[in-house]
Design a protein that fits this description.
Elements lengths: L4 H6 L21 H70 L1 H11 L28 H4 L7 H4 L1 H4 L3
Length: 164
Amino acid sequence: MTATHYDRAVAAPAPAPKQAPKQRPPLRVVKPEDNRQVDRRRRARLRIGFMVLVAVGGLFGLVASHVVLTQGQFRLQRVEANAAEQQAQYERLRLQVAELESPQRIVAAAQERLGMVTPPGVRYLSPTGVNGGPPPTAGKGAREHAAPQSPDWTAVKPHLASRP
């Protein structure tokens, strides 16, 4: 049978050149001592990784504590500035109260606003006793420590005694 042009196109591709198989290392049984060395290396890597993690965490904690401390310092400065401002305002208000309470200002306001005048003279009254008599004298012993007596209103205002 002869091959036609059509048959040649469908024909299988030429086989690729064979590559030499890769050489595998010879297999061997792992001894327990070899396993221990691998475990030691693995544990050493884990320890180093853990120490690095602790160091990074410690540094992060240190930075965070400094940030918190700095924020607290800023807050303290604001509070101190506010306290100083309030203290200054308190001192201003105390000065204003002292000026408003001064006798000269009160007399001037009374004369200007209320039309009050200064009296021509001052007359002082002396206290009298309970029933209009002389005041009790000090040093009489029992009278100093005695409770004050209630006044006799019938003697002062006779019309009160007639009420029921």
